[in-house]
Write a structure and sequence with these properties.
heterodimer, A: about 325 residues, mainly alpha, MetI-like fold, B: alpha/beta, Rossmann fold, 2 domains, four-stranded antiparallel β-sheet
Amino acid sequence: MTEFDRHSSGGIPTLDAGADPASLGPATPMSSGSIQADEFALVHEHGLELKARSQWAYARKRFFRHRLAMASLIVLIVILGAGVFAKQVAPYAYDQQDFAHSGQGPTLEGHHFFGTDVLGRDYFSRVVYGIQTSERVAFLVAFLSTLIGTLIGAFAGYYGGATDNLLMRLTDLVLTLPGLAVLLTAAAFMGNGKPTRVAFILAFLFWTGLARIVRGTFLSLREKEYVEAAKAAGSGDVRIMLRHMLPNAIGPIVVNATLIVGVAILTEAALSFLGFGVQPPTPALGSLINEGQNVSSTMWWLVTFPGLTIVLIVLCINFIGDGLRDALDPTQRRLRA
Amino acid sequence: MPEPILSIRDLVVEFATEDGVVQAVDGVSYDLYPGETLGIVGESGSGKSVSQLAILGLIPQPPGRIASGEAIFEGQDLLKQSKKTLRRLRGDNIAMVFQDPMTSLNPVLKVGDQIGEAIRAHRDVDRKAAREQTIRLLSVVGVPNPERRFDQYPHEFSGGMRQRAMIAMAIANEPKVLIADEPTTALDVTIQAQILEVLKKAQDETHAATILITHDLGLIAEMADRVVVMYAGKVVELADVGKTFSAPRHPYTVGLMDSLPRLTVDEDWLRPIPGQPPSLINRPPGCPFHPRCFLSRGRAVCREEEPPLRPIEGEGHLTACHFAEELEGQQGKLVETPAGAAG
């Protein structure tokens, strides 16, 4: 064993001054690769300044030029920002009752932008707090399910064989579970209420899609020559997975995570609407619609505004997902015109 | 002869395919001595690369399987080592340069970091030290402006520069054995010459014994000290590079030499070896080359008996042909040209 642990003291061979690289001829960039890359190389060789852009710089640039995604991002930041700073944004507390102004339609008077409900609670404030609850759940779901999905997909795709089989059958098992039934049962069993509990239930169901995507990506990345080269250089499995493969799979992962946020908001709304999600008095977007539906014929604003908010959030997230997918594709070097 | 640094004996590598088991490498044996360059030639699918990947433990198993054989490196059989031991060996004692530099570098990592990773996988050095070593390596392999190049991504490198970077990665830990798998095949001709210079320099710096896998006979003539000729997963001839070119003693090698166009003679036709290499599934009995051989001429022993690799004409020249002696004294143009093509 020890004979293999040769740690030479010499380190790296040095260049005897002046011998090379001149004798190796001029560095003529000729290759079958992209013309653009060679132009960069040429410019460098002649000493002209040209700022090299990193992969992230390219991605950023592409994303910022995606108009729909940028517009969606701004709208989403406004909506989610309102949720984060609910205390500052909302003119009232979410449970503050004012019977003098109950059942009022949308008006600027008294800042009841979205009207009030039968108890006289300001619906704008309740929606803003509802956004806060929903986004907390959604981000926790996205984080957890991305973590689980990436881990399982990465191990399955990298090791293949029996590991792959085991993990993918597990994934199939979770996929075959009827979502809503499991959600309702789990919500009933685990006890209702807390947003984090709802998030855990959702995350348990949502990681499967990403696991499959990551597995597929890792399966194809595993055959790449640079992975073989990294193995030949003596890199370990974990290092290869983290340093070589994960960055190449980051596009689908990020896109999927953003889409999960959208789906999680929708599903959480559905759960809350059915009364199995976040429990009153904590407002969530779904439970707000639920509360409003009994009187929706007379007080249309009680269902419309939380509903619109949900639609807007999910739309924005989907557009951003599209933009990210285009931007993060490392094989796409061209900037969007 | 000194002790060989790497000694391969009876290596058999099989792949399970849908059509049956393919014996990609079938009983290969040879030695690599310190400081020498051993060329391995053969056409596509003759098992050149697979035999090297096998000793590094880089054959995917399954479908691959090392059926038998041993590869003795510094007194230990590489084929019996644990995955962990092999991983520590790879890139440290035995390093590899791959064929296609366009795909062998990870597009999302800086070139310098990838080379540095090869150092940090084996040496306990911090990022800064690894960076300094990498920059020195880049200048050794003739990458101009190495400090700036360190922070660039592969797409900002040309093909030749990438191959230099790959060589830098391979010699990062001063390997004792350097395996170059068709290092110039993916490059165009002007760059090939430069890369050869870099390879030679890398050898001089590290004193690594080199295995050069190629199907380019010009490259063999330029670089190799001894030549292993492989055909259908077997070694058919092993000789000094001079003997290989001037006095080949296997009809396949003769055919290879004949297929080279000569600049000094006005030739209208290339002289290819007729026929196709045999299927590696259901390998026919006898000599694998006999259906294409000009010496065999339907002789029964060629069809029935597999010729062993045996010494011929003094030390260090081995051939696997029943009738190798008939080649003595003959030279060139032994392969029949297509009808009407002569002249």
